[in-house]
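Give me the 3D structure for CXE1 protein.
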Amino acid sequence: VKPPTVIGQFHTLFFGSIRMFFLGVLGFAVYGNEALHFSCDPDKREINLFCYNQFRPITPQVSFSVFWALQLVIVLVPGAIFHLYAACKSINQECILQKPIYTVIYILSVLLRISLEVIAFWLQIHLFGFLVKPLYLCDAGSFGEKFTIIKCMVPEHFEKTIFLIAMYTFTVITVVLCVAEIFEIIFRRFCFLIRQ
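Predicted structure for CXE1 protein (196 residues):
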């Protein structure tokens, strides 16, 4: 069952293809070899590894990719449940607009999608922030170095910041599309009632 609104169909295309492509291809390109290019002063392999593990306790390929992949799956669940329900009941696009109960159920699934996106947005801000700084100050006191604070250069910090902002932008766009979809379905339902 396709979404009953044009905005819903666009949301599915935008959400599924563009966001997944951006995450899969560009996310790996930006974060793929971060540990190799992370360097500290003094530039010793063991200090670089020690400070990198402090900088990123969980590798970005795992933390970033898993978080956003999980977000994509969780946000798709309400729509998938509705479409499974619609397929079992043989509900088509017009039935969703004609029968109030189906309209309400569909709107509730979109509202749940919005709620999940807002929660994910909040989590993104608290987990990743908005800015990747070019310099990281590593506390190497426990490593046994004579200098307790070591300066480390974060590779491609600008690209990582752009990537984070793009992921926030995708979240905002999908929320706006979901809100617009609710207005579209209410408007189409209102037009359907006037025609009768």
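The chain has a mean pLDDT of 82. Let me know if you want a second pass.
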